[in-house]
Amino acid sequence: MASSETGAAGGAAAGTGRIAVLAEHVRNQIAAGEVIERPASVVKELVENALDAGATQIRIELSAGGTELVRVSDDGAGMGAVDLALAFVPHATSKLFRPEDLEHIASLGFRGEALASMGSVARCTILSRERPAGTGGAGATGARIRCEGGQLSAVEEAGAPVGTSVEVRQLFYNTPARRRFLKSAPVELGRCLDVVQRLALAHVGVGFVVEHDQRRVFDVEPAMDLRGRIRRAFGAELAQALEPVEARDGDLVLTGFVAPPRLARADTARQMWFLNGRSLRDKVLLRALKEGYRGLLFESRQPVAFLVLSIDPARVDVNVHPAKSEVRFRDERRLFGFIVHAVRAAVSRTDLATPGARLVDTSLRRAGFDVGRELWTARPPAEPFVVHEAPAREEPARDEPARPSAPSAPLTAPAPGPRTSVLQIARTYLVREVEGGFEIVDQHALHERITYEALAADLARGALEQQRLLVPELVELAPHEVSLVAAEAEHLKAIGIELEAFGTTTIAVHALPARLPHPRPELLVRDVLAILEENRRPTRERLLEEVLHRAACRSSVMAGDALSQEAIQALLARGAALENDQTCVHGRPTRVRFTLADLERAFLRRG
Ligand code: ADP
Ligand code: MG
User: What is the pTM of this model?
Assistant: First the structure.
């Protein structure tokens, strides 16, 4: 069928030209690939249309994972015969009229591509009846239209309830190459369910029912709140452990839930972001979430969170990607800081304890933490260790004239609060009774966290004091190592380390952070080198954090140090004063708690 476009090139076509404009149905099939990839994309587009139509109850029927049938029925506004005739036409939409509308899109769809795409790669039917406007009673019956492989039928009258039902059968029946790419029914069903669950979380107030091969596989009632929906989708254990997030800064509002770090997963499947009713996977948001959990999780673990962001639509551009799962924010930096702050506050309210029951399975090891690679296994011969109290920075320096910025005085004052006696086991673990059970503390991990927090707090206040060495300490390294370390000299100053290249194979260390009780310049330089070799070109923040962490590690009590009751109490008291004393900087637990229930289970007093 020659169209008017090809007619214009008619003269050339009569010759030997090889270029021809693609037929429209082929063009549509190609374009369809952008929007419709698999049954789950059909489900997404149809449910979004139902939501845009104001539905309060949506039913999704699937068969064979959606590859044979996806039918979505809603009780929304419906379409009259005139609209039905246009529904499958590419770029026909009721949601966008003028270019300016792109500036403030509030609907989920707006491109007018979804139904046209489905119509060109499947056998589709829409049955719809408009909601009567006023008393007039618009459509007394409903109407139906079909579109199969791009072939549109006429609109015919048909009985239907108010609302719309769209049926998509045999997806990709006319593009076998695509059909072959579909996975097994259970896999496709899983993806469809994921789509519906995300939408159900994003639209509290709307009820959803999913049936697969006539069996109900998911449902939520319209009145069910977000936590209830999470429970339905992901189970009671997670739902109960969630901590609410509530933050506002001008037009930015963040609500939703974060899960405690112990429920983190290997993948990001339970990180859900909702923006103005749209579920999305946006890099900026995902990064901000991870940042909010920083230091509370193993590097390889992913937090679990369900967060609802609302921003003035004029400040977001949702028209970036056809799948619309990424957006562009106008003031990205402000948004980032706002989220990190809100997430951190909520996460630190969760129960950060590592439950003893979890130790029984080795999930932490499987999470990729390299248990053998402990820094403290190579401890130099020990001097008797004293736990130092962090001096409050506002206080005048204490009475040690030789070292004006000496680290701190040994703690002698009794720690506040009730003292239960604490058992030290293998000179490594501290065991004590806590409410509802007992806990085991890793003395090194806890002290390291305390020292690190003190250093980091100094750094944040710009008050990290230096101790100058009277004679610079010289550290011998290979020439390339010297240049690697010396290149970071400027950055290291920020944390009180002053060093420079001294010839081609020597680093001269002039100053170190004053808070470190037994600084060993040589070891610090080697730490810096190790960090630089492990992470090619770390950011300044990352470098400083790592150096502080290792410095904290070296100047903390070690596994194997005998501690007096006094020192133990001081250590625990200082840990309790921290915002987070449950994990070390890298997310390894500092303490593990056993509840009475754990004991009852262990002794078979309960199932
Ligand atoms: P878009 O959603 O981007 O507008 P679609 O191809 O998904 O494009 O839908 C085209 C049009 O069909 C919509 O703009 C809307 O007017 C109408 N429509 C689609 N689904 C429904 C529905 N479930 N209820 C009412 N109208 C619908
Ligand atoms: Mg749509």
Answer: 0.66
